[in-house]
Amino acid sequence: MKENDIAPHLTPANQKEFLRVFLANEREILRYVMAFVPHAPDAQEIVQQTALVLWEKFHSYDRERPFAPWACRFARHVSLQWIERREKWRKLLDDGLAKELAERREQLQPEFDQRLSHLDACLGKLPDRQRELVEGYYVRQLDARALAEESRRSVEAVYKTLQRVRKHLRECIERARLEANTS
Amino acid sequence: MKFPSTEFEQALSDLCHGTIEDQAIDGLHTLLQQDADARDAYLWRIELHGELSAGRLDFATPSGPESPQEAGLVKSAVVTAPPLHPNVLSGWRGLRFRKALVAMAAVVLVVLGYGFKRMATDPPMQQLAERPLDPFLAIVVDESHDVAWEGVGPDWGLGHALGRQRAHLESGDATLQLHNGVELMLRGPTELQLLSVDHAILQRGQVSARVPEGAIGFRLDAPGLNVVDLGTEFSLAVDDAGASSVHVFEGKVRAALPSLPSSRTELLTGETAQFDADKGEVTRRLSDVSLFPPLNDDAGLPKTEGDICFLRKPPPSLHPGTFEHDSILVFREKDNVALPRRLRVVRKVSHQFRSKQPSVPETVDLAAHTPVQSYLIHFDRVGDSWTGGVTARGVIRFDQPILGLVIEPERLSETDLFCCHEDTDYVKGITRPLEMRFISDAPNGHDEVYLTDDGHELELTLRAGPYVDQFRVLVEVPTE
Hints:
The complex is a heterodimer of chains A (183) and B (480). Chain A is an all-alpha fold and 183 residues long. Chain A is 79% helix and 0% strand. Chain A is built from 10 helices and no strands. Chain B is built from 7 helices and 24 strands. Chain B has helices at residues 6-17, 22-34, 36-53, 68-76, 95-112, 117-120, 409-419; strands spanning 138-143, 148-149, 161-162, 166-171, 173-178, 183-196, 199-210, 219-222, 225-238, 244-257, 260-268, 272-276, 281-285, 303-306, 308-311, 328-338, 343-348, 362-366, 371-380, 390-397, 402-406, 448-451, 457-464, 468-476. The chains are: A mainly alpha (183), B alpha+beta (480).
């Protein structure tokens, strides 16, 4: 098979363009996928598969429109197919629940975005140890075992602390929201 | 399961961490089917976790108006997925088609010179006989002009990685840097097998080792002989008959024939001993240092820690895919070059996640004609993922003060004109700049470069996607 047979539409110019727009929107695609599959490594795998589909379909992308919604159409389909093939996720999201959650998320999206506008400030208020743990888990993408070794805690304690941190963040966001609404 | 309840919170947390049990899944499924409030709570918790995972962490700046780019991205996050036409992706459900997609992407990426290296091509190191290649244990940081490796492609050598396979150096000298800082200088013909960063076996030939304090206990075996470093620079030679000699340049080693406990010997600076495993003999003798390859003087060279290796020579190529490992490479491009015009360089970049400093770096203008030493930092990850990526971290310390960093793409291109090493084939263009927040194309950047207060040391955390990361360090020229 010749290169042109594989991807006849991919000229060097739009290859670069694809990389640019995909990387610029990768975060949003990942966030969208995680609404279906919250486990980050699984979600990343789905985004990777989505990237390949997007690559294949890039010739049909209308440059006049934003990339993320176009990409998320495919991400949704890839996510549902991925879920279909995994019993655990299928059990959780079966019986139309995936569709129902996706539709509800769309309705709640403006509210979520409004809440998340307070996230940076709340992250900034975390105590150092909690912030380091969050940074290790979410930014450096260390697994719980590595974080446990690094922080000399048990793996269970790491998970528990992460759960607690997220709870604190939700509470902080809620307080900030109330303050913003009353002021 | 009920909502609200501790059980619900625990199930969601486990779901996010990938540790949820089947029973909890059943309970969560039933609850979400029945309870609208639980569904909303579920979605909000997942949304927050997703936002954190997607990298929206900004500990450095107080909340406030975002840059236009960030605002645009956040706006685009309000994604409403239109109904997907059921036939859009029909026919690609099978693994075969998926593999075809992967292959397609791989080929195109290779044409581009980007990523998917492991999937797309057989790296030169795969020609070495033994697998698995991972983990990468050492990088070739120096080699003589007459070096010849057996079992690898002609381009393999400087800057490439060795795993747990046997390296066969046919001729010339080559220096390996292990990830724990141990340096091994091989003189061909030599066969060496790395088992770990703490342990290697010399089958035949000559190897000299420099073992830093943190790696004391490094073990180098020869047929029938164990040599354990006790903080030293030493050399081990195995002749064609299988007899081994140990010489200590500096420090102390312990050597023993494992079949003969009484042979256990400690050697100090300047001492040499010959070990005959067949006869069970140990012979101390005066050293003829010329028999042992001397280690290169590393005085004045940048010192590296972590995932950074300093190459003693510029590599022939920096194109993506040239180096199949996850180490950050540094090399000196120019010893002394005068800036042809005034140049704005970065002098201070904050930790993005750890400090309250602004993301806009401090810059300074270097005057025209300022003499500088130029170093290039190059990171080319291994991996087939577009997300996640590989993170490499380390520290590099220069003897001379760092005058500034050239990070922004346009300045990198500008300095290429007078800093590039003439024997190196550079990659240029959009594929190489760092993704740092102050770079306009990378508002969600994840690379970190931190210049310490004394101005001599850089702390790097580079997370490369399917392309390379590069930037330039300009250092004061040492006075004679």
